[in-house]
Design brief:
Mean pLDDT: 88
Number of domains: 2
Radius of gyration: 18 Å
Number of helices: 9
Order of helices and strands: EEHHHEEHEHEEEHHHEHE
Strand content: 15-25%
Low-confidence stretches: none
Structural class: alpha+beta
Shape: globular
Largest sheet: 4 strands, mixed
Helix content: 40-55%
Protein backbone atom coordinates (compact mmCIF):
# COMPACT_ATOMS: atom_id res chain seq x y z
CA UNK A 1 0.00 0.00 0.00
CA UNK A 2 1.28 3.47 -0.86
CA UNK A 3 0.26 6.86 0.50
CA UNK A 4 1.22 10.40 -0.41
CA UNK A 5 3.05 12.64 2.06
CA UNK A 6 0.57 15.42 1.24
CA UNK A 7 -2.45 13.18 1.83
CA UNK A 8 -4.81 13.64 4.78
CA UNK A 9 -6.85 11.01 6.65
CA UNK A 10 -9.69 12.00 9.01
CA UNK A 11 -8.44 15.57 8.81
CA UNK A 12 -4.87 14.70 9.86
CA UNK A 13 -1.68 14.27 7.83
CA UNK A 14 -1.58 10.68 6.55
CA UNK A 15 1.94 10.18 7.90
CA UNK A 16 0.78 11.05 11.42
CA UNK A 17 -2.11 8.59 11.21
CA UNK A 18 0.26 5.96 9.86
CA UNK A 19 2.55 6.55 12.86
CA UNK A 20 -0.40 6.14 15.23
CA UNK A 21 -1.50 2.85 13.66
CA UNK A 22 2.08 1.56 13.57
CA UNK A 23 2.49 2.27 17.27
CA UNK A 24 -0.87 0.61 17.91
CA UNK A 25 -0.11 -2.46 15.81
CA UNK A 26 -1.03 -5.77 17.53
CA UNK A 27 -2.29 -4.12 20.71
CA UNK A 28 -5.35 -2.36 22.12
CA UNK A 29 -5.13 1.36 22.86
CA UNK A 30 -7.27 4.21 24.14
CA UNK A 31 -7.71 7.97 23.93
CA UNK A 32 -4.63 8.65 26.04
CA UNK A 33 -2.51 6.73 23.57
CA UNK A 34 -3.67 8.98 20.70
CA UNK A 35 -2.96 12.09 22.77
CA UNK A 36 0.56 10.85 23.51
CA UNK A 37 1.51 9.68 19.99
CA UNK A 38 0.00 12.59 18.04
CA UNK A 39 0.47 15.31 20.69
CA UNK A 40 -3.17 16.39 20.58
CA UNK A 41 -5.76 17.24 23.24
CA UNK A 42 -8.51 14.89 24.36
CA UNK A 43 -11.17 16.48 22.15
CA UNK A 44 -9.04 16.09 19.03
CA UNK A 45 -8.08 12.54 20.00
CA UNK A 46 -11.75 11.57 20.31
CA UNK A 47 -12.50 13.11 16.90
CA UNK A 48 -9.63 11.19 15.29
CA UNK A 49 -10.78 7.91 16.83
CA UNK A 50 -14.34 8.50 15.67
CA UNK A 51 -13.14 9.21 12.13
CA UNK A 52 -10.84 6.19 11.98
CA UNK A 53 -13.58 3.94 13.31
CA UNK A 54 -16.16 5.21 10.80
CA UNK A 55 -13.72 4.68 7.91
CA UNK A 56 -12.90 1.13 9.01
CA UNK A 57 -9.30 1.61 10.13
CA UNK A 58 -9.98 0.65 13.75
CA UNK A 59 -12.68 -1.15 15.72
CA UNK A 60 -13.70 -0.98 19.36
CA UNK A 61 -12.15 -3.85 21.28
CA UNK A 62 -13.30 -3.45 24.84
CA UNK A 63 -14.55 -1.08 27.50
CA UNK A 64 -12.85 -1.35 30.84
CA UNK A 65 -12.37 0.47 34.11
CA UNK A 66 -10.07 2.97 32.44
CA UNK A 67 -12.24 3.63 29.38
CA UNK A 68 -12.72 2.34 25.84
CA UNK A 69 -10.08 0.56 23.78
CA UNK A 70 -9.63 0.08 20.04
CA UNK A 71 -7.57 -2.16 17.75
CA UNK A 72 -6.40 -1.83 14.16
CA UNK A 73 -8.51 -3.62 11.58
CA UNK A 74 -6.96 -5.34 8.55
CA UNK A 75 -7.40 -2.04 6.71
CA UNK A 76 -5.72 -0.21 9.59
CA UNK A 77 -2.75 -2.58 9.59
CA UNK A 78 -2.40 -2.08 5.84
CA UNK A 79 -2.18 1.67 6.41
CA UNK A 80 0.27 1.16 9.26
CA UNK A 81 2.60 -0.65 6.88
CA UNK A 82 2.01 1.72 3.95
CA UNK A 83 4.93 3.45 2.30
CA UNK A 84 5.19 7.07 1.22
CA UNK A 85 8.40 6.37 -0.66
CA UNK A 86 8.77 6.64 -4.41
CA UNK A 87 8.79 3.46 -6.47
CA UNK A 88 12.12 1.74 -7.14
CA UNK A 89 13.51 -0.21 -10.07
CA UNK A 90 13.03 -3.98 -9.98
CA UNK A 91 16.79 -4.62 -9.86
CA UNK A 92 17.06 -2.51 -6.71
CA UNK A 93 14.12 -4.30 -5.12
CA UNK A 94 15.66 -7.68 -6.01
CA UNK A 95 18.90 -6.65 -4.31
CA UNK A 96 17.04 -5.67 -1.14
CA UNK A 97 15.16 -8.98 -1.16
CA UNK A 98 18.39 -10.98 -1.37
CA UNK A 99 19.92 -8.93 1.44
CA UNK A 100 16.81 -9.60 3.53
CA UNK A 101 17.07 -13.36 2.97
CA UNK A 102 20.72 -13.25 4.05
CA UNK A 103 19.62 -11.62 7.30
CA UNK A 104 17.02 -14.35 7.73
CA UNK A 105 19.82 -16.93 7.61
CA UNK A 106 21.93 -14.90 10.04
CA UNK A 107 19.08 -14.76 12.57
CA UNK A 108 18.76 -18.54 12.42
CA UNK A 109 22.37 -19.16 13.44
CA UNK A 110 22.99 -16.20 15.75
CA UNK A 111 22.38 -17.38 19.33
CA UNK A 112 21.56 -13.85 20.45
CA UNK A 113 18.17 -13.85 18.73
CA UNK A 114 15.47 -15.79 20.56
CA UNK A 115 13.31 -16.26 17.47
CA UNK A 116 14.05 -17.59 14.02
CA UNK A 117 12.18 -17.20 10.74
CA UNK A 118 10.29 -20.35 9.80
CA UNK A 119 8.75 -19.01 6.60
CA UNK A 120 8.96 -15.97 4.31
CA UNK A 121 6.21 -15.28 1.79
CA UNK A 122 6.66 -12.74 -0.99
CA UNK A 123 3.52 -11.01 -2.25
CA UNK A 124 2.32 -7.75 -3.75
CA UNK A 125 3.62 -5.62 -6.62
CA UNK A 126 7.02 -7.33 -6.77
CA UNK A 127 5.33 -10.41 -8.26
CA UNK A 128 3.84 -8.42 -11.14
CA UNK A 129 5.62 -7.67 -14.41
CA UNK A 130 6.07 -3.99 -13.58
CA UNK A 131 9.55 -2.54 -14.09
CA UNK A 132 9.18 -0.46 -10.92
CA UNK A 133 7.62 -1.49 -7.60
CA UNK A 134 6.46 0.43 -4.55
CA UNK A 135 8.11 -1.91 -2.06
CA UNK A 136 8.96 -5.54 -1.36
CA UNK A 137 5.99 -6.99 0.55
CA UNK A 138 7.01 -9.89 2.78
CA UNK A 139 5.07 -11.94 5.30
CA UNK A 140 7.11 -13.79 7.91
CA UNK A 141 6.43 -16.45 10.53
CA UNK A 142 8.62 -16.26 13.63
CA UNK A 143 9.03 -19.22 16.00
CA UNK A 144 10.98 -19.48 19.28
CA UNK A 145 14.37 -21.15 19.08
CA UNK A 146 14.23 -22.42 22.65
CA UNK A 147 11.70 -25.09 23.59
CA UNK A 148 12.22 -24.96 27.34
CA UNK A 149 9.58 -22.50 28.50
CA UNK A 150 11.34 -21.35 31.68
CA UNK A 151 14.65 -20.81 29.93
CA UNK A 152 12.91 -18.88 27.16
CA UNK A 153 11.15 -16.62 29.70
CA UNK A 154 14.43 -15.99 31.49
CA UNK A 155 16.25 -15.00 28.29
CA UNK A 156 13.30 -12.86 27.17
CA UNK A 157 13.42 -10.88 30.41
CA UNK A 158 17.15 -10.49 29.89
CA UNK A 159 16.68 -9.09 26.39
CA UNK A 160 14.01 -6.67 27.63
CA UNK A 161 16.25 -5.48 30.46
CA UNK A 162 19.17 -4.97 28.07
CA UNK A 163 16.97 -2.91 25.76
CA UNK A 164 15.82 -0.73 28.66
CA UNK A 165 19.40 -0.21 29.81
CA UNK A 166 20.18 1.09 26.32
CA UNK A 167 17.39 3.65 26.65
CA UNK A 168 14.49 1.91 24.92
CA UNK A 169 11.06 2.60 26.37
CA UNK A 170 7.88 0.60 25.80
CA UNK A 171 4.46 2.20 25.38
CA UNK A 172 2.71 -0.66 27.17
CA UNK A 173 3.19 -4.13 28.64
CA UNK A 174 2.39 -5.86 25.35
CA UNK A 175 5.15 -3.95 23.54
CA UNK A 176 7.55 -4.95 26.30
CA UNK A 177 6.64 -8.64 26.23
CA UNK A 178 6.92 -8.77 22.44
CA UNK A 179 10.33 -7.10 22.36
CA UNK A 180 12.28 -10.31 21.52
CA UNK A 181 10.13 -10.65 18.39
CA UNK A 182 10.26 -6.94 17.58
CA UNK A 183 14.04 -7.02 17.89
CA UNK A 184 14.22 -9.69 15.19
CA UNK A 185 11.86 -7.73 12.96
CA UNK A 186 13.94 -4.58 13.34
CA UNK A 187 17.08 -6.44 12.36
CA UNK A 188 15.40 -8.08 9.38
CA UNK A 189 14.00 -4.80 8.10
CA UNK A 190 17.35 -3.06 8.67
CA UNK A 191 15.71 0.38 8.30
CA UNK A 192 15.02 -0.30 4.64
CA UNK A 193 12.17 1.79 3.28
CA UNK A 194 11.73 -0.79 0.51
CA UNK A 195 11.07 -3.78 2.79
CA UNK A 196 7.51 -4.03 4.14
CA UNK A 197 6.91 -6.74 6.77
CA UNK A 198 3.67 -8.46 7.77
CA UNK A 199 2.78 -11.61 9.71
CA UNK A 200 1.84 -14.72 7.73
CA UNK A 201 -1.53 -14.79 9.52
CA UNK A 202 -2.26 -11.12 8.79
CA UNK A 203 -5.37 -10.43 6.73
CA UNK A 204 -3.36 -8.12 4.46
CA UNK A 205 -1.61 -11.14 2.94
CA UNK A 206 -4.89 -12.95 2.34
CA UNK A 207 -6.38 -9.91 0.65
CA UNK A 208 -3.35 -9.43 -1.61
CA UNK A 209 -3.25 -13.14 -2.52
CA UNK A 210 -6.76 -12.83 -3.96
CA UNK A 211 -5.36 -10.31 -6.45
CA UNK A 212 -1.95 -11.87 -7.13
CA UNK A 213 -0.65 -15.30 -5.97
CA UNK A 214 2.04 -15.20 -3.30
CA UNK A 215 5.34 -17.07 -3.39
CA UNK A 216 7.28 -18.79 -0.59
CA UNK A 217 10.89 -17.59 -0.80
CA UNK A 218 12.11 -19.16 2.45
CA UNK A 219 12.72 -21.96 2.97
CA UNK A 220 13.55 -22.77 -0.62
Amino acid sequence: MQIQASQTIVGQPALKIRRLLRRGYSTAWGIGFVEEVLHVDSKTAKRIIKGLESEGYIEKKDSGRHGDYWENTVKGNALAMATAAKSVKRARAEQKLQEFLERVKHVKYDDYFLYKVEKVILFGSFLTMKESVNDVDLAIKLVPKIRNHEEFKKLSRQRIRQAQEKGRTFSNLVDELFWPQTEVRCYLKSRSRIISLQDTDDGVLERCESQCPASIVFPT
